[in-house]
C-alpha cells in the first residue's frame, strides 16, 4: 500500500449544541468514537448529520459544548481530518494523478505515491486522464485516493456515495471497507442509506432533531455482504427507529 498504517484519532463529542439563528440544530450530542472505529450517523434529512460532521472537521463553531480529538479541543480546521463529499470536488484543470497528489506535492516522490494510491482504488494507469472523462464512480475513487494521500487519522464521509447507482455504490462500499481495514483510520460516515451504514459501520448513531435517539453496535463479520445472517435484522431495527415504527410491528410485515 502507498501509505503507512495509521492509528486513528479518538473523538469525543461533549454536550454539543448548535443553533443557527433561532433553530436548534444540535441539541446536546454526546458521543465517543474510538481510534480506528467506523461510525455511521443516520437520520432524516435536516436532522443535523452534516452539521455534526462539520463540527468534527472544525468547520463550525459550537454554540456550546465541544469536540475533542485525542483529548484536545478541536478549535479551527481539523488538520488530522480528510473529507469526502457527495460531489468529488476534483480540480477539472488538473489530471487525475495531480488531483490525487495535490496534498503531497511538497514531497519529492508524490507522483509515485499518487500512482500507488490510484492502483489501490482500482484506477491503475489512469493518472493522465482528465476528471471530465471519468464516470461518477471513478471520480469518487479518485476523491477517495486523494483523501487517503494525506494518511488521515480521521476520514469524514458526508454522503460520499449518495449520487452513485446501486451497483457502483456497493462496489465503492466494499472498497471503502477494504481500505479502512488496511489503514485503520477512524471513520465517521453520514448517510441516508441504512444498508450502507450496516455494511460499513462498527456502530450506528441515529439522530432525530439534533439528538441521538439510538446507538446500535454492528458486530457482523467483515468483509460484509447484505445477504449475511443478521444484516437485515439490524437494518430493520434502524429503519423502525427512523420511521417511528413500534418493535412489535416489524417493518417487513407492515409492507407485505
Ligand atoms: N450555515 C447554516 N446556516 C443556517 N442554517 C443551517 C446552516 N447549516 C445547516 N443549517 C440548517 O441546519 C439543519 C440541519 O442541517 P444539516 O445539513 O446538518 O442536516 P442533514 O441531517 O445533514 O440533512 P441532509 O441529510 O438533508 O443533508 C437544517 O435545517 C439546515 O437548514
Which characteristics define this entry?
single chain; 256 residues; alpha/beta; Rossmann fold; 2 domains; six-stranded mixed beta sheet; four-stranded antiparallel beta sheet; globular; cell membrane
Describe the structure.
GO terms for molecular function: ATP binding; ATP hydrolysis activity. There is one protein chain. The chain is an alpha/beta fold and 256 residues long. It has two domains: 183 residues, 3-Layer(aba) Sandwich (Rossmann fold), CATH 3.40.50.300; 64 residues. A six-stranded mixed sheet has the order 6-7-8-3-9-10, sandwiched between helices. Helix 3 packs across helix 4 and helix 4 runs parallel beside helix 5. It is globular, with a radius of gyration of 19 Å. The termini are far apart. Bound molecules: adenosine-5'-triphosphate. The site of adenosine-5'-triphosphate has 11 residues, from helix 1. Adenosine-5'-triphosphate binds next to helix 1.
Quick overview of this protein structure:
Helix content is 32%, strand content 25%.
Instruction: Look at the structure and give the mean pLDDT.
Output: 90
Inertia-based shape: globular
Proportion of residues in extended strands: 15-25%
The helix tally amounts to 8
Number of strands: 10
Helix percent reads 25-40%
CATH topology category name of the largest domain: Rossmann fold
Q: Uncertain runs with pLDDT below 50, 5 residues or more?
A: 1-6
CA-CA gap between termini: 47 Å
What is the structural class?
Answer: alpha/beta
